[in-house]
């Protein structure tokens, strides 16, 4: 056999082997860093060594108390989690790349948010984050109303339910969320169920979803709210305080341009206490190192006012990973240790945790264009000599929609729930973009001056009149059932 023929024969057998080795190495390289086609046709290019190193770094430097200076870092880890979830949602099937990303996301999420671990639903699950997201019913929308802590809360929730159903004709499903039987017992739940004429209401004990060992929600008052939003199976949530009152169907909020564009719509508090609460502002400046466009629109951020958010209504689309993870950050701020050390000490209750969670997690969100308005009654300027009204006074904060029509207000239908919880009166006027003049105490009226006094339309006054009429019937029913509805508020 000629030497040339020997070479040819050797190449005939060696070449396939070389090609096989090259193919294996190429496959490993693609599986290691890139080459995975997403559902939108793009190719996923991820360095899994980097992901592994990131997860290990998070494991070795877990978030520990004190928490005050760690809100930014929790937000940075949330942003990484959002990145991974977006890829997970687009990778098909059960590819190796998807499994690696799921593992990274689960490890990071359960480290940051231990309350999702050991869920009573699946106490031994290794996929707590995926389990929580799987609860959400695709395309579903609904109202989530946390209720608990006493018969007075049941009363206000009853007022809200009958107004929504019987006056406004709201057809959205309602979910009442509570923290165990001690928070809202069966007698109270049965009373609330009787007020929904559509029978499209259900109850959710948040303890069936989350481990309460780091939460203490029965004692947390406002703290249950983000956990109620997280636990609800509604993918799009309108979270509503029990003492909120609507002048339009809440469904309208789901059609707002701002909500459609961002997936998170919030409402402003009153503009008050400018250049006060220095510690609060210094802390925000320290933790919000790179303010978003939404933050740079804030007069609290740019002009040093004290309070940003009225969290009586919050609208969220949990199908968007950034909103979902932002909600997780908000929930973390309302866990027992964090709220007692920071959240409820530097600010008041849950209010500021909503935008701060979204902001730090890198989520898009938008506030209503105006800071808190007032709804009440026209009053003359003190000592004005009968020259006419120049102010609107009341006990509530009101909010217009994107067409500057009132959509809801906080504080309930009673005129003054703190000083006289039995009296009702239909409001007749409102004001927007004026200057707040606070009452000396919470029991005293506050006023707004310096802007146009706007009259409520006949239709708006009729909605309030009918809502008050329905609320009186709720009061009678609850008293007949033996509830102490005029107790502590």
Layout of secondary structure:
Layout lengths: L2 H31 E4 L5 E3 L2 H13 L10 H20 L5 H17 L15 H7 L2 E10 L4 H17 L6 E5 L7 H8 L7 E5 L18 H8 L2 E7 L4 E2 L10 H6 L1 E3 L11 H10 L5 H4 L2 H5 L9 E5 L3 H13 L2 H11 L4 H10 L5 E2 L5 E8 L8 E6 L2 E4 L5 E4 L4 E3 L3 E5 L4 E3 L3 E3 L8 E4 L4 E2 L2 H23 L9
Parallel strand pairs: 3-4, 3-6, 4-5, 8-10
Antiparallel strand pairs: 1-2, 6-9, 7-14, 8-9, 11-12, 11-13, 11-17, 12-19, 13-14, 15-16, 17-20, 18-19
Write up what this structure looks like.
Helix 3 (71-90) packs antiparallel against helix 13 (321-333) and helix 13 (321-333) crosses helix 15. The protein is 42% helix and 18% strand. The strands form 4 sheets. Strands 7, 11, 12, 13, 14, 17, 18, 19 and 20 form a 9-stranded antiparallel β-sheet that branches. It has a 7-stranded mixed β-sheet with strand order 5-4-3-6-9-8-10. It is of the alpha+beta class and 489 residues long. It folds into 3 domains: 29-116, no CATH class; 139-367, Alpha-Beta Complex (Spore Coat Polysaccharide Biosynthesis Protein SpsA, Chain A), CATH 3.90.550.10; 373-456, no CATH class. It has 16 helices and 20 strands. 42% of the residues are buried. Keywords: Glycoprotein, Glycosyltransferase, Membrane, Signal-anchor, Transferase, Transmembrane, Transmembrane helix. It comes from Tolypocladium capitatum. This is Alpha-1,3-mannosyltransferase MNT3. It is found in: Membrane.
Gap between N and C termini: 104 Å
Radius of gyration: 27 Å
- Indicate the percent of residues in helices: 40-55%
User: Count the strands?
Assistant: 20
Q: Please identify the structural class as seen in this structure.
A: alpha+beta
**Broad CATH class of the largest domain:** Alpha Beta
Overall geometry: globular
What's the overall average pLDDT, rounded?
Answer: 91
